[in-house]
Amino acid sequence: MKNSALSQLARRTGPPPISWLMHLALSRPKLISLAAGFTDNESLPVAEILETLGEILHTNKTGQPALQYGSTQGDATLRAVTSKRLQKLDGIATARRAYSPERMIITNGSQQFLYMATEALCDPGDLVLVEDPTYFVYLGILQSRGAKVRGVRMESDGLDLAHLEKILESLKKCGELRRLKALYLVSYFQNPTGITTSSAKKLAALKLLKQYEPAAGHPIYLLEDAAYRELRFGGEDVKSALAARGFENRVIYAGTYSKPFATGTRVGFGLLPEPVFSAVLRIKGNHDFGTSNLLQQLLARALASGRYEKHLGDLQKRYARKAGIMLNALQKHFPPQIKWQAPAGGLYFWARLPRGIKSGVKSKLFQAALAKNVFYVPGVLCYAEDSTRHKPDNEMRISFGGASEENILEGIKRLGTVLTKYRCTISGQN
Ligand SMILES: Cc1ncc(COP(=O)(O)O)c(C=O)c1O
Description:
alpha/beta
C-alpha cells in the first residue's frame, strides 16, 4: 500500500522507553532492575486489600454498587476523602475552592490524568515547560501530542527561577509565548532527581507565569505532579501549589494512590480549575466514562478504615531503610568522582558521572552493566528534545523501590565494578 491508514498521532508517537524497561525487567528474571519505578513488592498490602474487598463484597447492598458502572468524574466519597486529605497535608483547616471535590476527577492512575490534562491543553506545536531533567513518560505524552518542550534548569531546592524567567522573556521576544500552555513540575522527590521544589519557588513560578499571561493572551497553568508526595521519609512536608492564595484558577494538581498504597490498583486523581476541568471530564467520558468503581471503593474504604494510613507509615519506614542501604552501597562501591544527592523521599537516586562518561542505552557502560545482569535508567531519556541545549548523557537514575534489599546491595556492587572498570577507558566513547 502506498499510504498508511495510521493517524498523524499514531505515526508521530515513538516507542515509550517505559515499556521496554519494564519488559526487560520482567523478561529476564536474573536481571537486577534498579531501573523501572516498580514499588516495593514484599510490602504490597495483600491481606489489607483482601480484607477490604471482603467488607465490600460481603453483602449485595455494598457489593452490587461497587460492581456496577460508576460516574465519569469518580466516586463522591473517594473525592471527598481525598480533598480533605490534601487540605490536611497542606495544613489548611477550612474548606477552600482549590481543593473542592467538585473540581476533582478520579482517573486510572495519575498517568491517565496527565495525559488527559495535556490533551485538553495542547495542540500540535504548542509548548510546555518542564524541569530539566523530568519524568520521561510525560515527555512521551508531549511528543505524542506533537507539543514542543523547553527544559528549565534545576537547583537543589527545585526550579531555577532565573532560568524560567529567561525562557519566558525569550519566548515573549520571539512571539512564541502564545503557544505556551503550561509548566509541568514533578514537585516532590522528583522523578528522576529526587529533588523537592520549595513552596516559595512554586509561588514565585506562579507569579512569573501570571506576569507573562498578557503577552500569551491566555492562562498559563502550573501542572503540579505530586506522585511521590506521600513517600516522604525525611524532612518536612512542603505545601502544594494548591495552597497558593489567588492562584486557584491556575493550578492543576495530579495525585495518585498507586505509589503510596498498591501500584497495581492504579487509582489516581486530579484537581483542575475551569474550563480545563470540564474539558478533561468530557475527554474522560470518551476515554472510558469512569475509573473502575470497585477499585475506587476499595481505596475509599482503605482510607476510611485507617488501613491506608497504617500501610503508608510502614511503607515510609521501609523506603527509608532501602534508601539508607542504597546510600551505604553507593558510598562503598561507586568511584569517588560520581556524585549524587541523597533523597528524603520517593524512589530514586540520581547519579552524575564525570563528563565524557556516557551512560545511554548504546553506551559501553550500559551494555557492560546489562552483561553483569544489572540495569538503570539512562539519564539522557529524562531530557526533553530542546534544541537550545545539549542533552547531558552522563547521568543515571537508580531506584531502590522495586529491588529487594539484597539486590540493592548486589546491584550497586555490580554497577560499581562496571563503573570502576570503565571510568578510565571509556571516556569520550559511545
Ligand atoms: C512523576 C510520575 N508521575 C506520574 C506517574 C504515574 O503513576 P500512576 O499512574 O501509577 O499514578 C509516575 C509513575 O511512575 C511518576 O513517576
